[in-house]
Amino acid sequence: MKIDRLISLIMVLLEHDKVSATRLAEMFEVTPRTIYRDVETLSRAGIPITAYPGIHGGISIMSQYKVDKKLFNPDDIATLLIGLGSLSSTLLPNEIVGTLAKVKGLIPDKQRKDIDLKSNQIFIDLTSWAGNKNLSPNLEKIKSALNASNCLSFNYSDSNGKRTVRTIEPYQLVLKEGHWYIQGYCTKRQDFRIFKLYRISALEVLNNTFTPRPFNSKLMDDSCWIASRIITIKLLIDNSLREQIAERCSEENITSYDEHRLLVELEFVDDEPGYQMLMSFGERCECLEPEHIRQGLIQRIERMMKVYG
């Protein structure tokens, strides 16, 4: 697609001082004549591209047009690359590669090796080992609807498995604790709602558009999202669970009980995912208090025992 090639051409020229038309033609698998036509198109669009004739000539963007590379120091650029790398694990690779190329274009040649080393010291992978195959296609549809202000229609299953058909005006995608959510105005409820993507099926982008309403982007802030449901529970756990528990609370909440066990004060939400989390620890974890959480675990264990007879 021509627009994709033009954008990529700009990024390449921003990253290099000068590139020959032949080299650019090889990179984009087109003829040099096509490259010159692209250069003419970009020039008409107001991008100051110059072409230098001769054996040492080439095509470049005027230096005044480029971002001053001194604006960012090596640590700044390494941090940007780490952050963009984490996004590439959740978005499609071709969406982020252009931004990565732009950021790399800020790297002075003398510092490129050092910055590459720093940015590769930390890798953030937000994907799961085995995920929902519909997630990426659904993300693409939602982003398309967000860009064009199109409504979305889908089937939605609540925590009890009850399915309803929803139509929403989408406003924001959120990645929180490894899960994607879409925030939007639900025409069925006549109010803003938050939907978990893994509970969505039969997602469709509708042709009808909407005029954006005033939107509160803090809908998932703790004060109105989950903080009111958080309680503190006390656990007795095996030492082997220390690393897993430490990911969910601070070290100050973990104390030694005896040679093999630890006492933990853990923030907990009294819902099914919360109980599933505790049960995943098996016999290595005992809930000491509060009593109603302990009884909730016992009831679930008893129901499971009935299944296995």
Strand order within the widest beta sheet = 6-5-4-3-7
State the distance separating the first and last CA atoms. Answer: 61 Å
| Biggest sheet details | 5 strands, antiparallel
Secondary structure category: alpha+beta
Text of the CATH class of the largest domain:
Mainly Beta
Shape: elongated
Give the helices and strands as they follow along the chain.
Answer: HHHEEHHHHEEEEEHEHEEHEH
- What is the beta-strand fraction? 25-35%
The CATH architecture of the largest domain would be Roll
Q: Segments where pLDDT lies below 50 for 5+ residues?
A: none
Quickly count the domains. Answer: 4
Q: Helix fraction? A: 25-40%
Pfam families: HTH_11, WCX, WYL
Organism: Budvicia aquatica
Domain HTH deoR-type: 2-61
Keywords: Proteasome, Transcription, Transcription regulation
